[in-house]
């Protein structure tokens, strides 16, 4: 056989194409191995499935027996539910009337109201258990609603409230006094900015600081800088981790467009380290240290509490080991390691997660509490990474602005916050923090166990999640029993309870008392009846069957009751 040049070139090209394809397939397979098996690990599939899920709601008949509970339990549930409805109507009347009046006009209110509980149960809950969204005062660890009820605050204002509302009122008042003469002048800096920058450099152990208006924006800027300096396209985030609502860090459900330059990988996994060691397109790895409480799971919310599969377990040493490994691989590969401490910064330790886990990041984002009660996002970083232009290529810049960044009032409230951190008693307080909260959780769990209640609290310092120890479709009802006991929760319900650090033992004892009373009442009302043969898996299978049946039903679209 004779080979001419054209044939040789043809075969050569073919061989090269095959080799390239094999390499691509291999890389693709490695990437797939780095994905978590859950839907949170598969953004595209999750989105497709979400678009498929039909709106099926239980009517009042099915609402109480979606698990086929015996009639006497169904009666108890119904009686308990109506008692709660009456209590909500009379005790929270003014607050819920204002909420109802506004709910047509505030889209956020409509959203949070709709997603307090799993969607199948939502219409009946919304009709009877109206939760007020308005409050008028805070005092110590309590909030006062429009009806004059005092509620223990278990939300900490999405984590902003670390040191107690009275402290932030003081930061704001003092801060306003400091900058009153300047007023809201933007574009120039008030001198308090230099104090803040010095403190932040000291706290973060990093060289430079930039100010933004929210945690989301600080994260955006961190990622943008990482891409600019590495010249690489992709960010790695870990399965389930929240980093604000910017599209690139929120692929999948909730984001109408695909995030093409984001890899969502498994946390605490050797597969992920392998990917980071081999890929050349990874600019940065984003870590939200709160995930240490439930690695690879989405932030727990009662809207997805259709069974008792929610799990959480905090192992500080194991997570610290993981961060050390991640640090080593990022250093080896020139990947920027970003700690997103918007939630945990200043809550776990003065030096945040870096100090708490003993690992240094290249860029760190802060926010929430750092504003001294006012809105803020902050990025601290290594000098070489924070630079937004190149001397040798003046047109190649990394742009970031924000009209309200470094707002004098925010900067002055921040200064008060940072001054507080330097007080010896605050430094001492951090030393005992974990022990205090672990003991409180242990005491409460003991009481729950002694009372044979199917609940367990799991914590990472002062951040809690409530787990449920036997299969049930109704765990989300606990949030309403807790509210009836005067405990204020955020719209995610029992998934995330956050305490401010000014809770005294006495305050905490009062909360624990109410917590146990709420769970007891829920048990007495029959919500935790369960078929001994049922498992979380069988509950989910049953729900899937209901959804399929509803999807295939000719009456679909008219939101027919399931049952
Ligand atoms: C870890 C983390 N990053 C970013 C954000 C977004 O911050 P913001 O709501 O201020 O935009 C949050 C908010 O909860 C957060 O917890």
Question: What topology emerges from the helices and strands here?
Answer:
Elements lengths: L4 H29 L9 H10 L7 H4 L7 H21 L1 H10 L4 H8 L7 H7 L6 E5 L2 E4 L4 E4 L11 H15 L12 H13 L3 E5 L2 H16 L3 E5 L23 E4 L4 H9 L3 E6 L28 H18 L2 E5 L11 H6 L5 E5 L9 E5 L1 H4 L21 H14 L2 H27 L4 E6 L2 E6 L9 H7 L2 E2 L8 E2 L6 H20 L11 H17 L11
Parallel strand pairs: 3-13, 5-6, 5-7, 7-8, 8-9
Antiparallel strand pairs: 1-2, 2-3, 4-10, 9-10, 11-12, 12-14
Helix pairs in contact: 8-15, 9-15, 16-18, 17-18
Write a compact overview of the structure shown.
45% of the residues lie in helices and 11% in strands.
Describe the structure.
The mean pLDDT is 94. The protein folds into two domains: 75-162 and 427-530, Aspartate Aminotransferase, domain 1, CATH 3.90.1150.10; 165-297 and 314-389 and 397-422, Aspartate Aminotransferase, domain 2. Strand 8 (336-340), helix 13 and strand 9 form a beta-alpha-beta unit. The strands form three sheets. The protein has a seven-stranded mixed beta sheet with strand order 4-10-9-8-7-5-6, sandwiched between helices. The chain has 19 helices and 14 strands. Helix 8 (165-179) packs across helix 15 and helix 16 packs parallel to helix 18. The protein has 563 residues and is of the alpha/beta class. It is 45% helix and 11% strand. Residues 158, 214-216, 219, 242-244, 288, 340, 342-343, 367, 377 line the site of pyridoxal-5'-phosphate.
């Amino acid at each position: 056989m004779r080979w001419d040049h054209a044939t040789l070139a043809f075969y050569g090209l073919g061989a090269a194409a095959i080799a390239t394809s094999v390499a691509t397939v291999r890389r693709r397979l490695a990437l797939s191995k780095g994905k978590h098996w859950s839907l949170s690990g598969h953004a595209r599939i999750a989105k497709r499935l979400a678009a498929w899920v039909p709106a099926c709601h239980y009517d009042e008949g099915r609402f109480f027996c979606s698990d086929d509970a015996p009639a006497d339990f169904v009666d108890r549930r119904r009686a308990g539910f109506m008692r709660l409805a009456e209590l909500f109507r009379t005790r929270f009347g003014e607050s819920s009337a204002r909420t109802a009046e506004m709910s047509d006009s505030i889209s956020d209110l409509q959203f949070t109201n709709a997603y307090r509980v799993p969607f199948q149960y939502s219409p009946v809950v919304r009709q009877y258990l109206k939760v007020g969204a308005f409050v008028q005062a805070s005092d110590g660890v309590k909030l006062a609603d429009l009806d004059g009820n005092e509620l223990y605050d278990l939300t900490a204002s999405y984590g902003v409230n670390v040191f107690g509302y009275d402290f932030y009122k003081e930061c704001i008042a003092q801060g306003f006094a400091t900058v009153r003469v300047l007023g809201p002048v933007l574009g120039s800096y008030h001198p308090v900015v230099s104090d803040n920058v010095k403190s932040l450099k000291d706290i973060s152990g990093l060289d430079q600081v930039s100010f933004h208006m929210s945690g989301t924006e600080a994260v955006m800027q961190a990622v943008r800088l990482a891409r600019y300096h590495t010249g690489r396209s992709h960010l790695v985030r870990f399965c389930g981790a929240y980093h604000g609502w910017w599209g690139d860090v929120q692929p999948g459900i909730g984001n109408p467009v695909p995030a093409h330059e984001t890899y969502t990988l498994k946390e605490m996994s050797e597969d992920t380290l392998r990917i980071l060691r081999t890929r050349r397109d990874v600019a940065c790895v984003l870590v939200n240290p709160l995930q240490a409480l439930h690695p690879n799971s989405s932030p727990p919310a009662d809207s997805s509490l259709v069974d008792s599969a929610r799990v959480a377990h905090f192992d500080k040493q194991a997570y610290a080991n993981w961060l050390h490994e991640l640090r080593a691989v990022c250093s080896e590969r020139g990947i920027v390691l970003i700690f997103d401490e918007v939630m945990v910064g200043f809550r776990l330790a003065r030096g945040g997660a870096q100090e708490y886990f003993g690992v240094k990041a290249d860029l760190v984002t802060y926010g929430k509490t750092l504003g001294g009660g006012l809105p803020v996002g902050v990025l601290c970083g290594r000098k070489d990474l924070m630079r937004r232009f190149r001397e040798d290529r003046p047109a190649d810049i990394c742009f970031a602005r924000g009209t309200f960044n470094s707002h004098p009032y925010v900067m002055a409230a921040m200064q008060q916050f940072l001054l507080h951190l330097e007080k010896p008693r605050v430094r001492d307080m951090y030393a005992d923090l974990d022990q205090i909260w672990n003991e409180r959780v242990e005491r409460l769990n003991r009481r729950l166990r002694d009372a044979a209640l199917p609940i367990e609290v799991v914590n990472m310092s002062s951040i809690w999640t409530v787990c449920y120890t036997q299969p049930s479709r109704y765990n989300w009802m606990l949030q309403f029993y807790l509210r009836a006991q005067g405990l204020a929760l955020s719209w995610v319900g029992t998934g995330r309870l956050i305490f401010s650090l000014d809770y005294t033992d006495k305050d905490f004892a009062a909360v624990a008392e109410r917590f146990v009373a709420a769970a007891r009442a829920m048990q007495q009302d029959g919500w935790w009846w369960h078929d001994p043969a049922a498992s979380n898996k069988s509950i989910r299978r049953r729900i899937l069957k209901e959804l399929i049946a509803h999807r295939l039903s000719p009456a679909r679209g008219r939101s027919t009751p399931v049952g």
